Amino acid sequence: MTSSALGRDFRLLWSAAVSSRFGDALRTPALALLAATVTRDPRIIAAITVVGQLPPLLFGLLGGVYADRWDRRRTMALVDGVRATVVAALAVTVALDRISVAVLLVAAFLLATLGTLFDSASFALLPALVPPDALPRANGRLQAGAAVAGGFLGAPAAGVLFAVAPALPFAVDALTFAAAALLVLALAPVANAHSRPVLRRGSVWSEIVEGLRWLRAHRTLWRVTVLAAASNLAISGIMAVLVLYALDVLRVPPAGYGLFAAAAIVGGVAGALGASRLAARLGTVPALRAVLAVETVALAGFALARDPVSGGFALAVFAAGTVVWNSLCASYGQRHVPAGLLGRVGAAQRMVGLLTAPVGAVLAGLAAAAYGTVPVAGAAAGTFALVTLAAWRTLRPAAPGVLSPTAA
Questions:
Q1: Which sequence ranges are marked TM in the entry (predicted)?
Q2: What is the C-alpha separation between 49 and 33, in angstroms, rounded?
Q3: Which of 32, 322, 348, 365 has the most other CB atoms within 10 Å of its CB?
Q4: Same structural domain for residues 10 and 157?
């Protein structure tokens, strides 16, 4: 089933998401390359990466509040318009050779901060554009499009454009943000609860607490969120040492690492396209449990692999499972969370999941330095085995007709 079968408005949203993701895939490596031309101090280069990771943790919940307060379609268009302006200003600064570490830090922080509001509004708007039973298919198409635009198109093009002119990737990124803003504005105004802002009922803090309490009270959604955070600990750890594991353990030639890494993209696309079929066949919650089991087997196979072919295949299967999990988790939340809370609850889920990522990366780095990368892969597989066991013991499908936030 193609995205066209989901309707005109979904096609517009899909096109906006793909355009924006293509620009992101150009900007992210170009920003790293640009930083390396300004300084060779690894602490400063790392700081530029870190400031881009902080806003979701600092402002994610706040972005969820305003995604519920403001018109989501207009919010997304406005945010992309502002991001286009910021990146265009960065392109001009680079072209004039006025770039500095301070400019890079501010740009990375500002773009990531705006992204928290955009992500919350986008997550909350999707249920207004497609029927509830089409959400797994819609989320899968969004992830597949983003993977192709980012992994197959944007990332390879970034280095080429930067070599032509350092300002060029940022100029193209600004155009993609502007195009995304226009595409979102072309969406038909949606006259339902998923697009309307909610009436303010209290302070920003009280609305944040309301979203957190709702998430904590919904047994299944909270358990899924905790399981996702636990699995992110392992995913972040294995990704932190992936290049070393591939080169040293799997004996991937340096020139072939890009092809090896592409296995994850291929797997992700396959998972995204198959997520809706799996949910339709098993049901969302049983599918989530099955996916964790498959990921555990794949990660165990990756930890045992000693050649590029078997390692790449295991990585592709694991990536497919990860994308299916993400698609189905998003769809489950979009179906069960009240429309007026979607921004806040979705933001809370993302924040909880992100909290474990830096911990996993740090632990993996320390363990790899002390014991090598093989134990890190084994520990990641063991973590997934525990997560899978917990999922099979605690996740249960919701009873038909149960609307209470404590429903399983």
A1: 44-65, 77-96, 102-130, 142-164, 170-191, 221-245, 257-275, 287-305, 311-330, 351-371
A2: 12
A3: 348
A4: yes
